[in-house]
Design goal:
alpha/beta; FAD/NAD(P)-binding domain; seven-stranded mixed sheet; five-stranded parallel sheet; about 25% helix; about 30% strand
């Protein structure tokens, strides 16, 4: 029997684990991919207090080393279901079944896809959702970045240091990223823009290789040629395993109060998976700390 089981080993989950372990609780984190969550896919982070500039991978590694150094157990398993059994919860994974007193959901989000023709066929074969992972493959080549929010603009700036040309495609009439991020991108001489444009289809050559995208701009269809595409068009919460608990909204995000409590006693939620205004590393770590602190009070009352 665990005291706390944490779903997800991103900044929120690892922070929750550190706080729980320091309270001498029996705690474990589940992670089905790579520890670190979305920050692993981020080239540079400049707004996390104490780090003037660091890569997402470096920050994730530091967090993981910290959590493992104090003995937080990490289980590489996919959570399929959580059952509320009253004073205990049952967590079913693709490998085992675990009982615990408290669950902290910190499963984060995954990139949203456009859902246009050619996307599935070219996924990971010309279309990527991780510039830091796949960007070096496009050194001295032409790439498209779909999306003008913070992620798209920041990763386009990174890609501009590698690629010959970067073309940003945004369906809105202007970029929506923070002004500083926009200023950095606009200082790059090898970046061009198609604003107010939407992708209709991804194009491939007769060998099945990426050729570019067909977009609609000002009512006309235009082919934009490129060797690679990077998509940043939003995120989807990872919450399918919460079905039946009634703690998510219509978009799948978890509804939690300021104490990170859900409507099910003993189930807390933290980080990007929550309904919230700002999804940043600093707010995720804060959520993780708040969730565990309130879980400790719950455990005291439970005993």
């Amino acid at each position: 029997m665990y005291d706390i089981l944490i779903i997800g080993a991103g900044p929120a989950g690892m922070t929750a684990g550190i706080y729980a372990k320091r309270a001498n609780l029996k705690v474990a984190m589940f992670e089905k991919y790579v520890p670190g969550g979305q920050i692993v896919n981020t080239a540079e982070i400049e707004n996390y207090t104490g780090f003037e500039r660091t890569s997402g991978y470096q920050l994730a590694t530091a967090m993981l080393n910290h959590s493992e150094s104090i003995g937080v157990e990490l289980l590489y398993e996919e959570v399929l279901k959580i059952e509320d059994l009253g004073k205990t919860k049952r967590v079913t994974t693709n490998m085992n079944v675990y009982d615990t007193k408290v669950v902290i959901v910190a499963s984060g989000t995954v990139p949203r896809r456009l859902g246009v023709p050619g996307e599935d066929q070219l996924a990971s074969k010309g279309i990527s959702w991780c510039a830091i992972c796949d960007g070096p493959m496009y050194k001295d080549r032409d790439v498209l970045v779909i999306g003008g929010g913070n992620s798209g603009v920041e990763e386009a700036s990174y890609l501009a240091t590698l690629a010959t040309n970067v073309t940003v495609i945004q369906d809105l009439p202007k970029l929506t990223a923070d002004q500083k991020a926009q200023d950095i991108l606009k200082s790059k001489e090898n970046v061009s823009y198609h604003l107010g444009s939407r992708v209709l289809e991804f194009l491939s050559d007769d060998k099945g290789n990426m050729r570019g995208a067909l977009i609609e701009k000002d009512g006309e269809k235009v082919e934009v040629l490129a060797d690679g595409v990077f998509e940043y068009v939003g995120l989807i919460p990872v919450t399918s395993f919460l079905e039946g608990l009634g703690i998510t909204n219509e978009h799948g995000y978890v509804i939690a109060n300021e104490k990170m409590e859900t409507s099910v006693p003993g189930i807390y939620s933290a980080g990007d998976v929550n309904v919230k205004q700002i999804r940043q590393v600093v707010t995720a770590t804060s959520d993780g700390a708040v969730a565990t602190q309130n879980a400790l009070k719950y455990l005291e009352e439970l005993n």
